[in-house]
Fold:
Amino acid sequence: MNLLFLGPSGSGKDTQAEFLVDEFGFARVSTGDLMRDISDGEKEMQVIIRDAMNEGFLADNFVFGLMQMYLSHLKADKIILSGCVRKASQIELLDFTLFKVGKKLDKAVYFELSDEEAIKRMTGRLYCPNCHSNYHKIFNSPKRVDICDSCGTRLEQRADDNTDAIKNRLADFHKDNDEIVSEYEKRGILIRIDAAGSIEKVHSELLEQLK
Ligand SMILES: [Zn+2]
Structure:
């Protein structure tokens, strides 16, 4: 089963993806993590790729080409693609990428959240720079303050998680999201999840709808 997760930052889609990874052995593939992983080894490359990502210099064809290469080596038969389709033009690129590795998309899961709630959530987000686990100061706090439960690394807040940057990101998100959602709706593979509930409630709704 191959899933695409859609939704604004703060909708909790990465946390929900992690549950499916732990419980059912899904592999989670995110374009951002993929680029960070690739650049992890080489300090110089890391800086170049990070800057290119921040400036939006990386062409989609390049990113999806790398994703294709990555997917072709991936052994998992259950995949969650997260943060991979942000623009309507990337729908076809993803179709093509999956086709090239002999896979197809089974469901697109849209985690719906109001802007107000998204802003409230994003200002409290924490992530682990080592194993990429995600936490939240209020909704999903680590057992020890600011320390990753999985690997013990000190958690960090992303530099772009301040209110102005978040409002800009949400505006960007809405520009393309309607078109993306309606395309997958047309294909009959869209699942809508009310992401405003608790993590547990969203999780059980997701499992129910994926049955
Ligand atoms: Zn960690």
